[in-house]
Design goal:
The structure holds 2 protein chains of 2 kinds.
Chain A lengths: L3 E2 L4 E5 L4 E7 L6 E7 L6 E7 L4 E4 L2 E6 L4 E6 L8 E9 L1 E4 L3 E6 L1
Parallel strand pairs in A: 2-11
Antiparallel strand pairs in A: 1-3, 3-8, 4-5, 4-9, 6-7, 7-8, 9-10, 9-11
Chain B lengths: L3 E4 L2 E4 L5 E7 L5 E7 L5 E9 L2 E4 L6 E3 L9 E3 L8 E8 L11 E2 L3 E5 L1
Parallel strand pairs in B: 2-11
Antiparallel strand pairs in B: 1-3, 3-8, 4-5, 4-9, 5-6, 7-8, 9-10, 9-11
The chains are: A mainly beta, B mainly beta.
Amino acid sequence: DQQVKQNSPSLSVQEGRISILNCDYTNSMFDYFLWYKKYPAEGPTFLISISSIKDKNEDGRFTVFLNKSAKHLSLHIVPSQPGDSAVYFCAARHLYMRFGAGTRLTVKP
Amino acid sequence: DGGITQSPKYLFRKEGQNVTLSCEQNLNHDAMYWYRQDPGQGLRLIYYSQIVNDFQKGDIAEGYSVSREKKESFPLTVTSAQKNPTAFYLCASSISWTGFVNTEAFFGQGTRLTVV
């Protein structure tokens, strides 16, 4: 029962352009959403979060958008840099965190 | 230098054997979690603990056991009852059970378990 879905397993963008990573969820009880970044052979590290009562949160080059009516979450990275290349996990909380399958972002120089 | 440490990084187990994965944190966090990652799937919760001497089953607890005798430690035992134990295991901690709100969880580096 995948309550958090990342339908794009991979995304490739040019350096300097915008990266948009998408996430859909099914559980209306989720009250908090997070994005994590993961490099190979390492644990995920926290990137940015948003409460369900908000629709946007910005932190430097990273912005998360929440559309509750569509049960959709997105992460925008502007401008994208080669160091952003990693796997990005969307996570949602109801009692505990549930994670999507991840999207592998590749930023080409 | 605070953090969360998992050991070993790689672990091989023969079929039918139990094996224990270590997770230690010195962040003074109350809550700890074990997740499993398989290719093409998200992180799935095995067990979580809100406080010392308490733990709860997650989505995929069958074939696993945990203990939480100390605040700093949350070891995971993969028993012979776990049918597909080969996976990447991640331990995490957060300030409190509600610590995921407004604060992030910190993850260890992970343990890759392979059944041979």
